[in-house]
Amino acid sequence: MVEISNKIYKTEPVAWRDLKFIQTKEFKKFPSESKERLRNSLIQNNFVQTFYVWHDTDKDKVYCLDGFHRIQILKELIMDGYHVPEYLTANFVSCKDRQEAAKYVLIYSSMYAKLYKDGFDDFMQLNNLSLQDVQFEVDLPEFQLETLTDEETKVEEVVEEELAESTRTPIVKAGDLFRIGEHYVLCGDSTSLEDIKILFGDTKANGIITSPPYAEQRSQYKGVPVDEYLQWFNNVQNNCKYVLARDASFFLNIKPHCEDGERNLYVHDLVCAMKREWGWRFTEEYCWTHQGYPGQLDGRFKNQFEPIFHFSLAKASDLRFRPEHVLGELSDDHFKKIEQRKNKKTKDASKKYATASGMGNMSHYSDLKGARPGNVLNANVGAASDHPASFPIKLPLFFVQAFSDQNDTWFDPFGGSGTTLVACEATNRRCRTIDLEPLFIEMIIRRWAKYRSQVKKSTDDFEHINGTLSLQEIIDNI
Predict the structure, then answer these.
(1) Could you give the CA distance from residue 320 to residue 404 in angstroms, rounded to a whole number?
(2) Is residue 2 part of a domain?
């Protein structure tokens, strides 16, 4: 049995003005409105929330783990003529060293406010912490996205070059099923319900994200003819429907190719069929923007966007939706509007406008912890993008965080190079993926192993469920 120990070993008054700080500069974004609320709370309610501190016995110094802004405001209150006791109560937290204490500073700080990227990066480096040390305890969605995107860009380029230049014979064969960590990978056909049952068993998918092969465009996938594409994809969507949880979302990235100087309409036909014939709800459409490739096209400019279609089985209000996982920074204009609403005349005018426009009561805006992103997402692909379904990791990172919780399961019916699986690995989700091409299955496994080694996690948790291949054999087959 795992024991939950009490890390707080004593509670006693401390000379709060003598407390030291681990961070060398402020790295938490604390808006003026939040500061004012904290100041008013201290004045009206007095000091009711204890400090959390760590006693470094080697240096005989007491460091404040939680309470930086309260100390700043208490000092300001003294300057304004308020009396503040010399000693205030603190909980002493047991930490084995400064690194562990720094981890608690980060955890406490992220509970109440957003962290500045520059200050965060400096703090992590100074205290010898990695993102993996805190990723399951600290809510840092945008930092996680940026950091993982930077790390994975190099991996993606290597993967794409590897596929483009590969002439080797795969050692994985059709029907092989692997468990790698919390994920399952099958060399099989996503149009086959039997293969999907082998991959999933009784498990349900809490989300699906994929980029299927284009019609007649990708030699590695033996592209489906345009006039057969809907019939072919009907089997895929049926199998997706079979494994999808009722409150889950299905994200489909596909853009029609050009033929004889115009866009083919098979993708538009596909979207209409999903809604009108196959019973899906067309919840939303996202625009993925990227750098695009230079070229001299007749009558057209270079392609710099692709659609991502959002389908679901349930109505939007019943979906698993976690916008708080992907919040951005609130603009200065947001706080100005809140200040304006404190003026009665502005409030009265806004009420009339809200009623007429259907916007409703917007008073809850003052409690927002961040700005919701829009439905336009920018993510550039790797420079060496010869992969038949190039898919930057920032896209699945965004969707798996925004539409699921940790330990949820995602499905990618066209596994490709394993981008969705790596995104799930990085965000503590589980992935089940399938691909017809044995080389892709080997690539997915190698990419998972490479990512795990980058973040200093063991790769021992590997199993060829219906065979005898070892992880090292697959890594070496390159």
Answers:
(1) 6
(2) no
What is the C-alpha separation between 402 and 251, in angstroms, rounded?
12
**Element at 330 (helix H, strand E):** none
Domain of residue 457, residue span: 143-294+301-326+372-476
Q: What is the pLDDT of residues 427-462, one digit of tens each?
A: 999 999 999 999 999 999 999 998 888 776 888 899
Average pLDDT over residues 286-308: 81
- Which is nearest to 445 in space by CA: 421, 410, 414, 412? 421
Q: Do 162 and 13 fall into the same domain?
A: no
State phi, psi for 338 to the nearest 5 degrees: -65, -40
Is 393 found in the same domain as 282?
Answer: yes
> Measured between alpha carbons, how far is 260 from 263 in angstroms, rounded to an integer?
8
Grade residue 143 by pLDDT with cuts at 50, 70 and 90: very low
Residue ending a domain, among 129, 163, 179, is: 129
Query: Looking at residues 72-96, what average pLDDT do you find?
Result: 92
Residue 90 belongs to some domain of the structure:
yes
Instruction: Classify residue 363 by its DSSP letter.
Output: G
Q: How many domains does the chain have?
A: 3
CB contact at 8 A, 351 and 341: no
Residue finishing a domain among 129, 151, 174? 129
Tell me the residue type at 358: G
Q: Give the largest CA-CA distance in the chain.
A: 81
With 0-12 CB in 10 A as exposed, 13-18 as middle and 19+ as buried, what is 115?
buried
What is the C-alpha to C-alpha distance for residues 296 and 294, in angstroms, rounded to an integer? 7
What are the residues whose beta carbons fall under 8 Å from the beta carbon of 266, sequence distance 6 or more? 215, 226, 229, 230, 256
Region for 100 from its dihedrals, namely left if φ exceeds 0, alpha if ψ lies in -120 to 50, beta otherwise:
alpha
Return the CATH number at 57: 3.90.1530
**444 with 356, same domain?**
no
Q: 430 and 284 share a domain? A: yes
Q: Are 452 and 446 in contact (CB under 8 A)?
A: no
Return the exposure string of 288-314: e unless at least 16 CB atoms fall within 10 Å of the residue's CB, then b. bebeeeeeeeeeeeeeeebbbbbbbbb
Both 246 and 170 in a single domain?
yes
Q: Identify which of 227, 228, 240 has the alpha carbon closest to the alpha carbon of residue 190.
A: 240
Half-sphere exposure of 381 (CA within 13 A, CB side): 20
Task: Return the CATH number at 190.
Answer: 3.40.50.150
